[in-house]
TrEMBL record:
CDD domains: GAT1_Peptidase_E. Keywords: Hydrolase, Protease, Serine protease. The keyword Protease applies. Pfam families: Peptidase_S51. NCBIfam families: PRK05282.1. The keyword Methyltransferase does not apply. This is Probable alpha-aspartyl dipeptidase. Belongs to the peptidase S51 family.
Amino acid sequence: MSPRSLFLLSSSRVHGYEFLEHAKEHLKEFLTKRNVKTVLFVPYAQNDYNKYTELVENTLSPWGFKVEGLHVKQNPIQAVLQAEALFIGGGNTFVLLKALYDENLIPIIRERVLQKGIPYIGSSAGTNVATLSIHTTNDMPVAFPPTFDALRLVPFNINPHYLEPDAATRHKGETRDERINEFIEYHKKPVLGLREGTALLVEGDKAVLVGDRNAKLFMANKEQVEFAPNTDLSFLLNQS
């Protein structure tokens, strides 16, 4: 069994940067140290697979990595079995998870990442599906996967694009914090709020917050905790 290697981005776009540019050095190091030459990209979270794959290819190719779209493979399962690395992009999480189930890819991806140790990059929806479930996505349920259970590459949930409540707002609807706490009250599972510009790097049994902003952790019957960049969050991997 090889150690898992995950790079879970809150988002691929950050204000002031081009696509993935904010994470360029981390991503290059993540792939290079694992001798990855070709990345298999999963564009299922968006409608235009070709356009999305081209965007990723135009970004990663100048960095020295070839990109192949899973959607053009005649046998998606075989493609995943042969992949050097996987990158699952953002979009609508419900659409993405349904497609992964429709193609029977959930157990294959899980085995390849957790048993064989192939690198996994997720962004936004791709990060959501790497966790226990997609209950804490911000997306609308425009499609209906057979279950909200996801890849379970980590034993907790993540809320990408986490945004704290604005104290000055006149909006009286539920805040992001309130919705996350509703999930925790029901499921008793931790949720890591990843702000844009941050990511969680998981290497084996070690997890570290990377980026330039804090992350917020929500846990049942505990106060919310803010963690600064470069904090060791490995304890989250020991959740039962």
